[in-house]
Amino acid sequence: MAGHGADEHPHGADRLCEAGDRVYSRAVRRGRLPRREAERVPCLMELALLHPDPDDMDWLVPTSPQEVMTRLLRGMYDEVRASQRRVGSAVAAFEWYAGLGRQVPAPGGASEGPAIRVLDGLARIQAAMDEATQACTTEVLTVQPGGIRREAELSEGLHRAMALRGRGVRMRDLYTHVARHGHGLLSYLELMGGAVEARTLDEVIERLILFDRTVAFIPANAERTMALELRHPALVEYLGTVFERLWRLAIPLTAPLPDTGIEGISHREQSIAALLAEGHQDAVIAERLGISVRTCRAHIARLSETLGAASRTQLGVRIAQAGLDGARPPVVIPPGRGSPTAR
């Protein structure tokens, strides 16, 4: 709403404005409220006191008063040395939240955060990731789709990785085979030493980060400006199982990719051939393998030349004949059976 921007609410969770106090209290009593009712109090979203309902994005659900109290106490511990001025107001706010928490019990009697939480905005995602990193003591499992990792992407999470390494946390990363060609990834792994183990596959699932088998983060939209924080034990266990099965199928980054057994056809072209045989379009194949559409089409052209196919239809037949469709082991095509230029 015009005239009610976040700059008109310059306060923290320890001293809510009158409107924020009223709306948050109403949300706690009801369990949720329509998003439009919070338009005049953007401070509640900015302070993560309200967040989107994962079942209906037109509604907002409140962060439990117990969780808010935990945040406040943690903030007090970090800031008390730097500023004594905020202690009084934070204690008063703690008493206010404690009183409100006694009025409404936490769902299911639990004192922890919700099983599924929507993180709206990159800043909130980064803050949640930093919090999970600080609490992590054993292992981190990640799946990184796409192609070559840009150095900016690697640098973004470097501080978390270094903190984990310092505490002896084991890290395992899954990438696509294309990521092997990125110098940034190799430099990152060299910097991390033995703390990180990496493997690659033709294609992987969407991005996943799993801390200590207790909390997982996955994207909530295509732009990755929203994420889901998952703490439900069944969901987290399922994602951990998926990771372990992919890990067993993956090839260590330090090991070479297996030979296709067909002269002139690379491992990547074998993967493209299998996806073509499944009927996928060029853009879908490129996305799944982490390459550009232009690169994908260049590989398809080389496949056609090597297999002696003059059209896409004929290419499909030759892919099946060569066993590149995954139905049977690949066979070696003798020179002269395919294109006159076959090697």
Automatic annotation (TrEMBL):
PANTHER family linked to this entry: HTH-TYPE TRANSCRIPTIONAL REGULATOR TRMBL2
Record-linked SMART domains: HTH_LUXR
Name of the molecule in the record: Helix-turn-helix transcriptional regulator
Source taxon at top rank: Bacteria
Ranges of residues in domain HTH luxR-type: 258-323
CDD domains xrefs: LuxR_C_like
The species this protein was found in: Streptomyces tunisiensis
TM region positions: none
